[in-house]
Amino acid sequence: MKLCKYILAAAISVSGMCATAEVLPTPQVTGGMPVMDAMNKRMSSRDIDPDQAVTKQDLSNMLWAAWGITHDGKHTVGTAMNRQELTVYVITPTEISRYNPVDGTLTVVVKGDFREVAGQQEFAKQAPINLAFVVDTDKQKSTEYQGYTVGAASQNVYLYCAANGLKTVVRGMFDHDKLPQVMQLPSNERVVLVQSVGH
Fold it and tell me: Model's pTM, two decimal places?
C-alpha cells in the first residue's frame, strides 16, 4: 500500500514539473440572457456529450462567473469576512489546472486524465470539463461558510450554462481520498464539490 502511494506521488511530482500557464480569452462580462430567464432555465443535466468540447471562451466565461474579479476588484461570489477561501480547478481529459482569476490564466498542476477520480458516475468520467471547488480551511474554518461560497460559485456556473446552451450538474460523488492527492493539495485544502460541464 505504501509502495503504491509512493509510486503515485512520484508520478504526480514528475508530471507536475512542467507546469505551464495558459492565458484564457478575456471573459465576456456584459450582455447575455436576463438573469430571471436564466434562473427559470437552470437545471441539472447528466446526458453530457463526451465528444463535444467546451470552447475556451465558454470556459473563460464560466470560470469568471464562478470566481472571477468584478469591476470593483471583488469576486463574483461573496465570502464571509472576505476570507476568499475558494480556488477553482479545471479537470479535462488531458490535465488538471488551477484557475487564477486575477490574470485569467490556467496553470497546469498535473498532466493526464484523472476524470475517473473526479467522478464515480460514467457521465462524469467522460465529461469534457469538470470543475473542482476547493476551499482553504486555514482561511475559512467554518464549514457552513465554506459551503455557502462553493454553493454560490456552482450556482453561477449553472446560470451561465443555462443562458448559453450548456449542460451541467454539481456532484459530491468523487474519490475524496485520491482526488486531493492527485491535485497535490496541501492538508489545509479540501475539495468540496465537483461540477461537470458540457453539451
Answer: 0.90
36-75 per-residue burial string, b: 16 or more CB within 10 A, e: under 16? eebeeeeeebeebeeeeebeeebbbbbbbbbbbbeeeeeb
Helix (H, G, I), strand (E, B) or coil at 69: strand
Segment (H or E) for 88? strand 86-91
The residue assigned the cell 443555462 is: 162
Instruction: Kindly list the structural domains of the chain, giving each domain's residue range(s) and its CATH number in brackets, ordered by start.
Output: 2-198 (3.40.109.10)
Rounded Cα–Cα distance for residues 196 and 124 (Å) = 6
Per-residue pLDDT of 61-117, as tens digits, reads 999 999 999 988 899 999 999 999 999 999 999 999 999 999 999 999 999 999 999
